[in-house]
Write a structure and sequence with these properties.
Radius of gyration: 41 Å
Number of helices: 50
Number of strands: 10
Strand order of the largest sheet: 2-3-4-1-5
């Protein structure tokens, strides 16, 4: 038993010993809150007293038996009869008295209210005391009555009679009672406390030191002080329970059970039930009024004043104050709220559904009157399911807007589902439907289809920026309904004006705009406006957030935003939607996309345009690269500025794609990891899936097949394939590429059998998918099918005038087919065309082109091309491209009779190429299998003439980079003399005379050297 009541137990023992010594009676009253250990104390004392020869008679009051005459007295007399006393006469008088007491009086719970009059009472009281005196002759008598506050009134009268006659009888009366809402039997207590020999013992909550000692003992410690960890655990237990022995013991028992179970059989729910049962055990030993207050606190789940609780429950604040005092004393409440979430959960789970619904309804009304936040009130409205009152609809709309801005579309859906059913006008219902489409799309795009159709049918036309038709554009694009989307944004007086930001690439975009009717002349769009499409090689579509003010009002676009500059306000939103159509479905509105002056200013403007317009303008700059706009810098700046905007997560998709297409896959991995680490991401499966798909493609470009496959699969788990719409080719194409690269052709074939919407091939995502499918055909030796896919991809890109190499370098893939067919001249022509694509030729694409071109070049030129390819792959971080290039370099050097020169710098490539996900070429190339294998082997043979030691290699690499001996000394923390010695041995082994003769392949050996820009996103 976890009970630290030694002091109180010792005092009771002294009282009994005094009774026996002085032949005088004694009364002891133990008080404490529910769960404070009163019953354990009485049981422990009774056991000890019986062991000393005392005769212990026990009884316990019960709320259910308060109307039963002589209930407690009957329990005591039963014990006396067992002890050998003749109680027959007393029991007969009790029966007569019980019949004589009117039924109404028998139901009286207070001894103060029951008149002890009538001819049956005097003989009954005398016989009761005489029966006890019979026992005294054989030793001291102890009368133990637990839960005195529940004792019946008739028994209390008899107990008072006994206590008045204890002057010369060794009888100890031990009583216990709990703290109640109001003092029970005040006249009884007044007379009891007037007894000269009375002890009052109050049981306080357990202290941290007491709990720590008990934990220390349970852990097997003895004779030493508890450790700091034990004290910390004791402090946690006391904080959770308020020091209630009942609750502390339940938590300690949970820990003991978990510690005694193995990992396979441990049952967390069963362990948690122990504490929940203890909470309910405590709660049900309080009056019903206290339970009502506890349930109201659980429903409110926030600090609540006595006045607020009184209005929710419909009672006076004074009654609430008494209940709070009682609940706090038992450890359930801490001042003005339930002490711990587990206590709250236990109380809620025990509250009947109809009671919870009624409390939520009253809480919503009361909190609304108190001016609480719309989200708080809306939560109670949703829980109650009631929107009958006129004030409910505006509150639900305000709460939905706030939840959408805070990145909680799940809450937005709950609020709007209820709000749309409320009695609202048509304009407000239309605004709520618009927001509902946005929120549902972010949770599951499939769930938004029905609402989207209704929204399109009821939408106004004419190119109005605040029109629901414009708000529906991203969702229409996501579903491949490009004609409807183009019609929604092409109408109106500004149909041919500057447009500008949109979702690029591989998928149409999706998002949402919430329109709030604030009167007959003003509408506000507030929400997450659909997102930049998954472009090219990724095929993910996200959600781009924007806030607009309709009817000519300014858009909240950040510092300096107003309605005077181009691209601000509702006009900027309409421009962004037009460019969104042009980027996600490039056959539509091409002039909007190809007119550089229309979006280049928006891409580089710091704050003068809307975030939505700037976001997709940055992506457009990456897809249509020019000298005027540095898309990489613009994307990083935008991400840094808006990464914490919880309600505008979709804005960040376009800059991520821009970095990907600019060849900075390493920055995509860093930024996507930061964004996915935000807590609100767990509430937006659509946005999370989009970012994971982009990250997977970035990992694939870095040669990390395992991470790429993991990310693409996670993206398809966030959203099932049918929910991706035309963007499904993004994660699906990445998985196909991973399976093909790893040689799992059966798996790639199964993935290609997955159905895809026909509209996907009208988007850049379709081009990404075609590249993956063509690569699979090439790996299977189906050259005609591969060439057909790559040529179709090229025709799409040329027709769209979207030749960004980072999107889909189709010429490289077609060159691979020609090389496989032996048409090296045609392949070289394609590769040179790729190398001369104006702008946008990222390091990885250039490295791949040079590597493939080396296979068509003469041996002398091949080494130079491979060396440059190695440098580019190392710079961009493509590990598998680097491994391939190094393997080919090794082969070329072996053919020229210089195998030893590549042995050292092939080790980093070996690490990238091996493992369970290694590509077939890495597992099958003989040169890799025959190498010595590990750096340790090189170190062991460091004295050989054809092998550089690790120290020599480090020095040679820095020397090849042009550093002086002093700079090398500072960089490697060695002396200049040591540098000179290493260089002397290196020159001899490599057969060169000076540092300018060091071969260029030494640069590739520097696998540990960081890039110039490798800082992580904080």
């Amino acid at each position: 038993m976890l009970i630290e009541r030694d002091e109180q137990l010792a005092r009771l023992r002294r009282d009994l010993q005094s009774c026996e010594k002085h032949r005088q009676g004694h009364v002891a009253l133990v008080t404490g809150p529910v769960g404070s250990g009163k019953t354990h104390l009485l049981d422990g004392f009774g056991t000890w007293a019986a062991g000393t020869g005392a005769q212990v008679l026990t009884a316990a009051g019960s709320r259910a038996e308060q109307g039963l005459p002589f209930g407690v007295l009957g329990q005591l007399l039963h014990g006396a009869r067992l002890a050998g006393s003749d109680t027959a006469r007393v029991e007969e008088l009790m029966r007569e008295a019980a019949v004589a007491i009117p039924a109404a009086e028998a139901r009286w719970a207070a001894a103060d209210e029951l008149p002890a009059e009538g001819p049956m009472w005097p003989p009954l009281l005398r016989e009761v005391f005489a029966a006890l005196l019979d026992l005294v002759d054989r030793g001291p008598v102890v009368l133990v009555v637990d839960d005195l506050h529940h004792a019946d009134a008739t028994s209390l009268h008899c107990l008072l009679y006994v206590t008045r006659r204890l002057h010369h009888a060794p009888i100890m009366v031990l009583l216990s009672e709990s703290v109640t809402l109001s003092p029970a039997n005040p006249l009884f207590h007044a007379e009891l406390r007037s007894r000269p020999r009375l002890s009052q013992l109050a049981l306080p909550p357990l202290a941290v030191a007491a709990v720590a000692r008990r934990l220390h003992e349970l852990g097997g410690g003895s004779g030493t002080a508890p450790s700091g960890e034990v004290v910390q655990e004791a402090r946690r237990l006391v904080h959770t329970t308020g020091g209630s022995p009942l609750l502390v013991q339940a938590l300690v028992g949970e820990g003991a059970r978990r510690g005694g179970e193995d990992g396979a059989s441990a049952s967390v729910p069963r362990a948690q039930d122990a504490f929940g049962r203890a909470v309910l055990h405590s709660l049900y030993r309080h009056e019903p009024e206290a339970r009502s207050v506890a349930r109201a606190l659980a429903v409110l789940d926030r600090p609540a004043s006595q006045e607020l609780l009184g209005q929710v429950l419909g009672v006076l604040p004074d009654s609430v104050a008494s209940a709070l005092r009682v609940l706090q004393s038992s450890g359930l409440v801490d001042t003005d709220r339930l002490r711990h979430p587990r206590i709250l959960q236990a109380v809620l789970s025990d509250t009947p559904a109809e009671t919870r619904q009624r409390l939520h309804e009253r809480a919503a009304r009361t909190l609304h009157e108190y001016g609480a936040e719309p989200g708080v009130v809306a939560g109670h409205l949703v829980a109650s399911g009631g929107t009958g009152e006129e004030w409910a609809a505006p509150v639900l709309q305000d709460a939905a807007e706030q939840a959408l801005s805070a990145g909680r579309p799940d809450l937005t859906v709950a609020y709007l589902r209820l709000g749309c059913g409320a009695g609202t006008d048509e304009e407000r219902r239309e605004a709520l439907t618009t927001m509902l489409v946005s929120a549902r799309w972010q949770v599951n795009p499939l769930a938004a289809a029905g609402d989207l159709d209704r929204l399109v049918r009821s939408a106004r036309t004419g190119g109005d920026p605040a029109s629901p038709a414009v708000a529906a554009v991203p969702y229409l694009l996501w579903q491949g309904r490009a004609e409807e989307a183009a019609a929604a944004v092409a109408a109106g007086p500004q149909a041919g004006a500057a447009g500008a930001a949109g979702a690029a690439g591989a998928a149409g975009a999706a998002g949402a705009a919430g329109v709030k009717a604030a009167g007959a002349v003003r509408a506000r769009v507030n929400g997450t406006v659909g997102a930049v499409g998954a472009a090219g090689a990724v095929g993910a579509v996200g959600a781009v957030g924007a806030r607009a003010v309709g009817a000519g009002g300014p858009e909240a676009a950040g510092p300096g935003a107003d309605d005077r500059g181009a691209g601000t306000g509702a006009d900027g939103r309409l421009q962004a939607m037009r460019l969104l159509v042009a980027l996600s479905h490039p056959d539509f509105l091409m002039p909007v996309r190809t007119s550089q002056s229309l979006w280049s200013r928006a891409a580089t403007a710091p704050h003068s345009v809307s975030p939505l317009l700037q976001s997709v303008s940055v992506l457009c700059a990456a897809l249509h690269p020019t000298d005027e706009v540095d898309s990489t810098a613009a994307a990083e700046q935008f991400l840094q500025r808006h990464q914490l905007d919880r309600g505008n997560r979709g804005l960040l998709v376009a800059p991520l794609l821009a970095l990907l297409y600019a060849g900075r896959a390493d920055r995509v991995v860093a930024w996507s990891g930061t964004l996915l680490g935000r807590p609100e991401v767990s509430h937006t499966p659509a946005w999370r899936g989009v970012v994971r798909a982009i990250r997977a493609e970035a990992a694939l470009r870095l040669g990390d097949l395992a991470e790429a496959e993991k990310g693409a699969r996670a993206a398809l788990e966030d959203l099932p394939a049918p929910a991706w719409g035309v963007a499904v080719g993004g994660p699906l194409g990445t998985l196909i590429a991973c399976a093909t690269e790893a040689g799992r052709h059966a798996e790639a074939d199964r993935l290609l059998a997955e159905p895809v919407p026909p509209g996907m091939f009208r988007t850049p995502v379709g081009a990404h998918y075609l590249i993956a499918r063509g690569s699979y055909h090439l790996a299977m030796g189906r050259y005609q099918a591969a060439s057909s896919d790559f040529q179709r991809c090229g025709a799409m890109m040329r027709g769209w005038k979207m030749e960004a190499a980072g999107l889909v370098p189709w010429r490289l893939e077609l060159a691979r087919v020609q090389i496989s067919l032996g048409n090296r001249t045609h392949a070289a022509q394609l590769l040179r065309e790729q190398l001369h694509v104006p702008h946008g030729l990222d390091e990885r694409t250039r490295g791949r082109a040079l590597h493939l071109l080396a296979t068509t070049a003469a041996p002398d030129h091949r080494r130079k091309l491979l060396a440059k390819a190695v440098e580019l792959f190392q710079s961009c971080g493509d590990r598998r491209g680097l491994a391939r290039a190094l393997a080919d370099t090794d082969k070329v050097l072996r053919q020229s009779g210089e195998p030893g020169r590549t042995r050292h710098f092939l080790f980093p490539a070996d690490d990238a190429a091996q493992g369970p996900e290694a590509a077939p070429w890495a597992r099958q190339t003989p040169e890799w299998q025959d190498r010595p294998g590990k750096p340790q082997a090189a170190a062991e043979g460091a004295d050989r003439d054809d092998v550089l030691s690790e120290a020599e290699l480090r020095v040679a690499v820095l020397a090849a980079r042009g550093q002086t001996n002093r700079q090398i000394s500072d960089a490697l923390f060695i002396t200049v003399s040591t540098v000179e010695q290493h260089l002397t041995r290196t020159y001899r082994k490599l057969n060169v005379r000076q540092r300018t003769d060091l071969p260029s392949w030494l640069l590739a050996a520097d696998g540990h050297q960081p890039r110039k820009v490798q800082d992580k996103v904080s």
